[in-house]
Amino acid sequence: MARFIITTKHTKNCNGIRIEPGMCVEVITQTMSNPVSTNGGQNVADAFMRIYGIDIKKAGCLNMVELDVQKIS
Questions:
Q1: Tens of pLDDT along 30-60?
Q2: Which residues on adjacent β-strands are paired with residue 62?
Q3: With the CA atoms of 6, 29, 64 and 68 taken in that order, what torsion angle do they form, in degrees rounded to the nearest 10?
């Protein structure tokens, strides 16, 4: 199992959703691969919905340009 911290890099206002830099979530996965690119980023999208109540996919921010991924363990 691997633990990742995913943090937004930029301010973005798209489709009625505002993203601020520094918004972060923690995701635990069964694999060691990047959770943004694995399974369509669904774990990351679910975490942002759970913590902030925003749909990061709808905002167009579920990609490596907008997100910083750090592997913790």
A1: 889 999 998 999 999 999 999 999 999 999 9
A2: none
A3: 20
